[in-house]
Amino acid sequence: MLGEVLAHLCAKPNTIKYPFEPAVVEAGLRGKIKFVAEKCIGCKICVKDCPADAITITKIGDKRFECVFDLDKCIYCAQCVDSCPKKALSVTNEFELAQLDKHKLRFVFHAPDAPPTPPAPAAQPEPPVAKTA
Ligand code: SF4
Ligand code: SF4
Question: For the segment 67-123, what is each residue's pLDDT rounded down to a tens digit?
């Protein structure tokens, strides 16, 4: 008995002193969702499948979509990630998201800038009209 007590006293603890030292994040943790606007086609399957009504997709231009996540609603199920046909959504291992102000849990992913409009082609000169006698 005494030997076992001494062994446990000398053993490395199984716990860590979080938050005073970094947490060990296990692979596969479902943390904050990330959106890559360049991949999104605006199908809104993620919106339909989200059980928490936490996603808003808005078309803001030609093939340009903005995404808003309300993480105060999100339950981190990652259903949206599984549902997205274009892999525009992914999970990160970011989990330290607690806030007193819920408005800070609204994350807006802006669409990339619209491509510049190509210059209009230069006007071609009119072909000369043949004179009739
Ligand atoms: S499911 Fe994917 S591609 Fe479709 S709107 Fe959501 S993020 Fe965009
Ligand atoms: S992780 Fe789940 S709850 Fe959160 S936005 Fe995606 S589908 Fe909705």
Answer: 999 999 999 999 999 999 999 999 999 999 999 999 999 999 998 887 777 777 777
Burial class (CB in 10 A: 0-12, 13-18, 19+), 1: exposed
Quote the ligand 2 centre to 24 CA distance (angstroms).
23
Question: Which ligand minimizes its atom distance to the CA of 49?
Answer: 2
* pTM of structure: 0.78
Token pair, residue 40, equals 């999104």
Pair of tokens at residue 7: 């062994």
Q: Which ligand is nearest to the CA of 41?
A: 1
For residue 30, report the distance from its CA to the centre of ligand 2, in Å. 10
**26-109 CATH choice from 3.40.50.2300, 2.40.110.20, 2.60.120.10, 3.30.70.3270:** 3.30.70.3270
Interval 15-62: pLDDT, tens: 889 999 988 888 899 999 999 999 999 999 999 999 999 999 999 999
Distances (CA, A) of 8 to 3, 4, 12, 15, 50: 9, 6, 8, 13, 46
